[in-house]
Q: What sequence folds into this?
């Protein structure tokens, strides 16, 4: 949820009828709202959300909808509902309101309209941990925290890799190859894509991806921003069965690289450590100054990296979700007071 910083006392007094205003009502967004909506999103620092306006994807995503709250001719707030093809089991929500003295009423009015529209579909929303007002709003309407996403940085001058541990007697024999070596090997790429699908699903159990064919997942193994010489996969000694992988991506800053997906088949954790080490060796030898990452606390493969490499601490992005069973309940907030 986005808004310019509003005084907490103004939020507390944002009830129906404050400042002599009449009760607010939400209306379905229409083409005539676009100009004001773009202006409001820009003013509130959410210009990137213009792409979520319904007409932007109406043909491909007919379930994209929006609601607006106006007072006379002034647009005070907007709620955006977006469908994602990759995660179809719910809709993504964004509420943007002007920092008016009635901001709490604006948000609650929009939320009720959203819940009435959602029906039996789950809702999901992300916001910065520092936005305590957003957490308060979504908690009141039955959302629960689902995930924390950290976006840390690591100065490579601080990294010293420990000696590599010898392979254990029970570990599978494997051959480690860079992604660059996989070019033209369709069997190996398909196996890698299947493993990527497995690892991604393991870290997104609450909101699983769609059941795409392996060809779709293969695009992630051949993404344009991959550093193919610095991304590695371990394959069974005989054949092209992928056992573990570690991706490395380009960054907008040439002196940075970004850690990507990491994963392994069950029982292949040591191989995952090996491909991760190969990735780090490439980064340290490649003249990069800094590493970035985007790590979910629900990801069993990447989460340990936060401590392993001593990333700088960062405040997380919070993701809240309201499940379908809750959405069908009456769209009224909890009555407890602010703490």
A:
């Amino acid at each position: 949820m986005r808004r310019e910083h509003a005084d907490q006392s103004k939020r507390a007094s944002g009830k129906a009828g404050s400042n002599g205003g009449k009760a607010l009502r939400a209306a379905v967004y229409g083409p005539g709202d676009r100009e004001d909506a773009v202006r409001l999103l820009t003013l509130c620092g959410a210009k990137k959300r213009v792409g979520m306006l319904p007409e932007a994807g109406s043909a491909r995503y007919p379930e994209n909808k929006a609601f607006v709250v106006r007072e006379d001719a002034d647009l005070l707030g907007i709620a955006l509902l977006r469908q994602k093809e990759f995660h179809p089991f719910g809709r993504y929500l964004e509420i943007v309101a002007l920092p008016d003295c009635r901001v709490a009423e604006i948000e609650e009015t929009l939320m009720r309209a959203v819940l009435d529209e959602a029906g039996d579909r789950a809702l999901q929303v992300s916001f910065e941990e520092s936005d305590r007002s957003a957490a308060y709003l979504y908690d009141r309407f039955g959302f629960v925290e689902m995930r924390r996403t950290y976006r840390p940085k690591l100065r490579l001058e601080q990294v010293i890799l420990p000696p590599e541990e010898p392979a254990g007697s029970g570990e599978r024999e494997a051959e480690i190859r860079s992604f660059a070596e996989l070019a033209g090997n369709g069997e190996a790429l398909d196996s890698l894509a299947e493993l990527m699908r497995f690892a991604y699903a393991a870290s997104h159990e609450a909101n699983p991806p769609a059941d795409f064919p392996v060809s779709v997942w293969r695009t992630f193994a051949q993404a344009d921003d991959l550093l193919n010489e610095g991304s590695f996969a371990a394959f069974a000694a005989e054949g092209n069965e992928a056992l573990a992988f570690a991706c490395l991506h380009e960054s907008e800053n040439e002196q940075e690289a970004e850690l990507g997906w990491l994963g392994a088949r069950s029982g292949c954790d040591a191989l995952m450590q090996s491909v991760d080490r190969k990735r780090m060796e490439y980064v340290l030898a490649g003249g990069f100054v800094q590493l970035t990452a985007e790590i979910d606390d629900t990801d069993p493969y990447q989460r340990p990296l936060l401590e392993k490499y001593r990333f700088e601490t960062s405040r997380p992005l919070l993701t809240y979700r309201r499940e379908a069973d809750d959405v069908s309940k009456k769209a009224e907030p909890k009555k407890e007071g602010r703490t």
Remarks:
- The two ends are 20 Å apart (CA to CA).
- Residues 153-313 form a domain with the Aminopeptidase fold (CATH 3.40.630.30).
- The first strand starts at residue 26 and ends at 28.
- The chain is about 25% helix and 25% strand.
